[in-house]
Amino acid sequence: xNERHLKKHLYGIQKKxxxxxxxxxxxxxxxxxxxxxxxxxxxxxxxxxxxxxxxNDKFLNSFQNVYEELNQxxxxxxxxxxxxxxxxNKTLSAKDKVLLTRTLFYINKSYMDYYLWLDNKGNTYGQxxxxxxxxKFYNSRLYKNLGKDYSKTKLFWERDVLFGSYDMALFVGRxxxxxxxxxxPGIIYIKLNNQINMKFTKELKDNSLVYLILDNQNQICYExxxxxxxxxxxxxxxxxxxxxxxxxxxxxxxxxxxQYGILCQAYDKDxxxxxxxxxxxxxxxxxxxxxxFMLGIIFFVTYLIGICGIIIFSRKLTKPIKKINQFMxxxxxxxxxxxxxxxxxxxxxxxxxxxxxxxxKVGILLDDIKIKERKLRKSEMDLLLYQIRPHFLxxxxxxxxxxxxxxKEETIMKMIQALSKFLRINLNNGRDEITVSKELEHVSAxxxxxxxxxxxxxxxxxxxxxxxxxxxxxKMILQPIVExxxxxxxxxxxxGGEIHICVYEDEDNLIMSVENNGSTMEEQSYRLLxxxxxxxxxxxxxxxxxxxxxFGIINVVKRLRLKYNNQIRFFYIxxxxxxxxxxxxxxxxxxxxxxxxxx
Amino acid sequence: xxxxxxxxxxxxxxxxxxxxKKYKILCILCCVLLTSCQNTSTVVKPINEVITIPAVFLxxxxxxxxxxxxxxxxxxxxxxxxxxVEAEWLTDTEAGYRNKIKQLNALDEMPAIxxxxxxxxxxxxxxxxxxxxxxxxxxxxxxxxWLGAMQEDILKACTEDxxxxxxxSLGNPVHSYAGFVYNKELLKRxxxxxxxxxxxxxxxxxxxxxxxGITPLALHGSGTYWVPMLIATSYISGTPxxxxxxxxxxxxxxxxxxxxxxxxxxxxxxLYTYDDALDIEYAQAEQRFLNNQAAIIANxxxxxxxxxxxxxxxxxxxxxxxxxxxxxxxxxxxxxxAGYDKKVTDGAVKFLEFRVLRDQKExxxxxxxxxxxxxxxxxxxxxxxxxxxxxxxxxxxxxxxxNEFFTENLPFYIRNEVxxxxxxxxxxxLVSELKSEK
Lengths: 599, 438
Hints:
Chain B: This is Carbohydrate ABC transporter substrate-binding protein. Chain B: It comes from Anaerosacchariphilus polymeriproducens. The complex is a heterodimer of chains A (599) and B (438). Helix content of chain A is 51%, strand content 18%. Chain A contains 16 helices and 17 strands. In chain A, a hairpin with a 4-residue loop joins strand 9 and strand 10. Chain B has 2 domains: 51-173 and 331-367, 3-Layer(aba) Sandwich (D-Maltodextrin-Binding Protein, domain 2); 178-328 and 373-437, Periplasmic binding protein-like II (D-Maltodextrin-Binding Protein, domain 2, 3-Layer(aba) Sandwich). Helices cover 52% and strands 10% of the residues of chain B. In chain B, strand 1, helix 2 and strand 2 (83-91) form a beta-alpha-beta unit.
């Protein structure tokens, strides 16, 4: 799939969000699974080693309990009155011998196979009539296993040469000393049968483990393996090679991870025996696999939930965006009155509302443009008409002027001349801008006509700084203002009206003022007119109530604001006698324009 | 230059920044995860191991108290964090205690510290021969304080023929003398102002007490006959024959005059005690004396541990008639048993040294004390003025005779159910049997 197709395929916020969040979540989940998996495996091993150390500890305790029981058993022999008597120099009486034999017989346990009491004079007492070759006996391992301890109970795994079965068996042996006086010790031997083995693992519930007991020569004297268990090749040797030979720690319990499993071993200092619990790898891996499997399922379900959550969330989030998008795609002139409705309690609501406002404004602007286009078309038509008419009109006016001159009609001459000037400047070859001097000439022509029409009702005065005369401004600004002066300012006058037109400048503006000495403008009127420079340009036509006129003024202000980008001032100042209208145009535009003109 | 180009570069940088931000977030996330996965390792500080020293001490079955409890507490406090004597408190008679030690020895389960070892010479010999005790000589010689605290004659008495020292006695006998302890009030009530100094006066005193309805002597038959035997042996020590008999180790013949005198004395003494005396143990006899139920008891200074300060003003101490006191260095001997880890053995030896030094300090304080109770004052006076020291018969006689023969046969003799001759025959028969065992 090439890049273009991929881009097309992944178009849309939802898909992008879905893709990225999925990638992020996947990476996070993978990292978590890897991290937790490692920790879980390590901790599981640690937990298992602790658990199996505990099991081995129990195994050791069981062994030590058995040893303690055997110790108690042999202690009862040691402290037995007749055993003690048999250690004295004096030979036992027949009665004492019977009593001794009987006493020994009564000290019986299920796990005892045979017992033998060998006193310090070579006499033997037991279930079997045993004739010992003492010389051979003292050279046998059975004797040597008793060691040099004074009277410790000894446990050893030896061949039974004593009772004649010649099988390997667990033996208990102990020196028995006379309590009061110095005598050679006697020896008590007990051969243990298989029932003792049950005691070793009686407390251990877990049958899936391997239990071993090794004697002080590292001979295996007890082995319990789970059903179906087979030692792997080298596995057993591997285990036996790791056996501790000796330790001074009375309850040494050591655990280590081997190639094939976990080895827990304890050393019993009293007997030198090693107690071993071996956990085959199949058991450890089974536990770890179960945990990892569970963990995997949990993570997978969580992952799926997460992905579903992302899909739902992104869908919910992008639904209004899609709605806006669709709305925009389908937008045309026929849907100017349609409105989008989004209620998500997010920023999207504002976008929707803003869009609706924008559509509304677009509608207004379109209407405006239509009106303007219509006006423009009309103007163009008018202009064409004007372009056809001027020569005819000027020639006609020149003919009227000649006739008036012939007949010496001064007033008509003056009026025709003013009208001709007014129309020439008015048309201005279709251009919108004229110089200040031309504008003043135009208003002057208009005033001349009005003056004749109104029978010298007023006089007018024009004052313009010389340097400002060549500044270019839009045409026909002053004429509507002057017209208003005559129409409303002088409506109550019969004569003596004055109009003062001044063009001057301050630091930033070109200023034009028109002042009359007629009636002062009503407060309501000048307040309304003074709003024209502030209100939105679209609403400028709504400022003056219908039927109150002022459209000429509105037209002037609107043109000024449009032309000079609202950088104008237009306001009326009521005077004690009359009203002054002030127009300020920012020099920035005047100058720029002039520069443009110059360039 | 291109605004467009600039914009393009800016745009690409912005895109790169967005990637960097994303990777940063991922990296931080991974770091957090890995950090959280790390295990915190804990450093286990090594803990100083307190060496536990096993011991078995006797508890008086009557008072349920042990005279050794204080020294154990003081030692454990002094060596806190290093050694701790963990005592098994055995409520039994002295004989019971000694028998228990023998059993523990036979079972190879002896505690590290044992007491009363000097009382049974045979057992003591057995322990030495079978290397069941630790030779304390190197320890004593290496400790100037310990060596300095030991009186030369006591050290000598505890030294074996081969120069080894297995028994650790107290360094001086200040607290080890035995004589008569008496109840001043009861004697006064019987009109006896001064404790008798001769045997004639002693019998007169007993008669007077008896006439007043006061039990004159606190004696016991069960056990070893220790109190009556103490009086009887002190009685025979007045003659050279008697003294020689007492000094003999394991006498071969008990049928001589000296032991006959002892037997007669015993019979006579039991006329001046309560009716059930033959059936009670030593601890009961001692308790009766301390409870004012009898006027006189033969005992050592150590009985003061059972007295409160008020009682010490009530009781007096006197030498046996003919200014005689009994003391034997081996009586106070304790020992350390072999077979323990060196650290435990060292701790046990330290305990014995502590005991000797503590006793030395207490002896000095005791001797230098100006304000004494009547009991202490009279004890000191008796020790100061003593002319004859007799050995403790317990150390020289066979334990079987003391522990078994006396208990089994003397009651019959005292109750006139067996004649003196028969007793002596039986006794000598036992002696010969014991000899043959050896």
